[in-house]
Specification:
With 272 residues, the chain is of the alpha+beta class. It folds into two domains: 104 residues, Lysozyme, CATH 1.10.530; 127 residues, Alpha-Beta Complex (endopeptidase fold (from Nostoc punctiforme)), CATH 3.90.1720.10. Helix content is 29%, strand content 10%. The chain is built from eight helices and six strands; from the N terminus they run ααααααααββββββ. The chain has a six-stranded antiparallel beta sheet.
Length: 272
């Protein structure tokens, strides 16, 4: 269904508040009634079966169907429009996510006016800047430039579990291949990569090429199973990462803020 860009921003901000963009199953004693999925929709309230709600495409479509039925939603403040759909006990909670939702939608939407300086680095093809954050510039350090350039050059290639390139990647395979371009051999799998190099204390302390770990769909904070690479900031200082997300998706750039509440570890591979 066709929904204007503002609708995307409302949906993303809502999912950030409800689930921090995680497709949550039932959380046992910590669960809010029978709430499930990205938008914490409830089967008992007519949102669908548990299986349907845990399908992100279905959940998003149901959210949009309810949103467009709200009279005047396109001129409402974001938090008011979200509350009209969600009927939350905390109606003002969505507002704080609006800046991050706008940034994330800007990254994934088409037709961005991009400014990026890149010759790809030594031995690398020129970097296609389409879809990169406005004002993004590759790192000046030659090694980090090669690592980040390679990772970004893989955008659009499909995720395939166990793949190490050149035509497809899984999350850790992409990290290994990118760092190999910088002359650094890192372990193959996420469970080992999370121990490579040195720890980075915070998101604010990151430099391009650092590896960011989150639980993913089948991991935990103590044993993360998904990894992405920090690439730098846009003109406004917003941070971004590149990742190979999951089966059915492709290598892409997303805002670090979409991961910020579930970061299990940050590691910096050591130069060799």
């Amino acid at each position: 269904m066709h929904v204007p860009r503002y609708g995307w921003e409302i949906a993303v901000a809502t999912a950030m508040q409800e689930s921090t963009l995680r497709n949550l199953g039932h959380l046992g004693a910590d669960n809010d009634h029978d709430s499930l999925g990205l938008f914490q929709q409830r089967p008992s309230q007519g949102w669908g079966t548990p299986e349907q709600i845990l399908d992100p495409q279905y959940a998003a479509r149901k959210f949009y169907e309810h949103l467009v039925e709200v009279d005047g939603w396109q001129t409402m403040p974001l938090t008011q429009a979200a509350q009209a759909v969600q009927r939350s006990a905390f109606p003002d909670a969505y507002a704080k996510w609006q800046p991050e939702a706008e940034q994330l939608v800007a990254v994934i939407s088409d037709g961005l006016d991009i400014v990026c300086t890149s010759d790809g680095g030594d031995g690398l093809p020129p970097l296609d800047d389409a879809g990169l954050p406005e004002g993004f510039v590759l790192p000046t350090d030659p090694q980090l430039r090669a690592v980040v350039s390679f990772a970004l050059a893989q955008r659009g290639k499909p995720y395939v579990w166990g793949a190490e390139g050149p035509d497809s990647y899984d999350c850790s395979g992409l990290m290994m291949a990118a760092w190999a371009k910088g002359g650094v051999q890192i372990p193959r799998v996420t469970a080992d990569q999370v121990h490579t190099g040195v720890a980075v204390p915070s998101l604010a302390a990151m430099q391009p090429g650092d590896l960011i770990f989150i639980p993913g769909s089948d991991g935990t904070m103590s044993r993360p199973r998904h990894v992405g690479m920090y690439i730098g900031t846009d003109r406004g200082g917003w941070q971004y990462l590149v990742q190979a997300p999951k089966t059915g998706d492709v290598v892409k750039v997303i805002a670090v803020s979409s991961w910020s509440q579930q970061v299990a570890a940050i590691r910096r591979p050591l130069p060799q």
